[in-house]
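Field log, afternoon session.

UNIT: design team B
ACTIVITY: writing a sequence onto a fixed backbone
BACKBONE:
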């Protein structure tokens, strides 16, 4: 084997080693990302029940992006309206609805009402604390 052939063979080995090192670094970085920043499960939905003229719980707590699982356990339609966010849903008797807290919702305590006629006057009010 000539000196030139030995030089070319050595260069090919160096290139293979470089690619192997690059591949190993990429693999370690990818695995490190998974270990350092694991994908977490979303927060479970906050359960809210509506009956004639009451929410249960009266005071609920949620986080931005979290779902509220709203069940109407009453005999008539009810709504769950977060007043200052102008976000709500109406749910028929025996049905379920979902309401997602906006990702950009500001932390604080919000008034919640059933905005169907006469329901607030009957006491269907509550609060939702967004953390």
């Amino acid at each position: 084997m000539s000196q030139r052939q030995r030089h070319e063979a050595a260069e090919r080995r160096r290139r293979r080693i470089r690619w192997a090192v690059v591949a190993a670094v990429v693999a370690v970085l990818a695995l490190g990302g998974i270990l350092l920043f694991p994908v977490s499960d979303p927060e479970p939905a906050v359960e809210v029940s509506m009956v004639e003229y009451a929410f249960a719980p009266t005071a609920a707590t949620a986080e931005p992006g979290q779902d509220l699982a709203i069940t109407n356990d009453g005999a008539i339609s009810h709504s769950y309206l977060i007043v200052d966010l102008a976000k709500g849903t109406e749910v028929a008797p025996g049905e379920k609805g979902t309401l997602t807290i906006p990702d950009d919702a500001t932390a604080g305590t919000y008034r919640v009402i059933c905005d169907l006629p006469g329901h607030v006057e009957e006491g269907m009010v509550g609060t939702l604390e967004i953390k």
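LOG NOTE: The radius of gyration is 29 Å.
NEXT ACTIVITY: expression trials, pending approval
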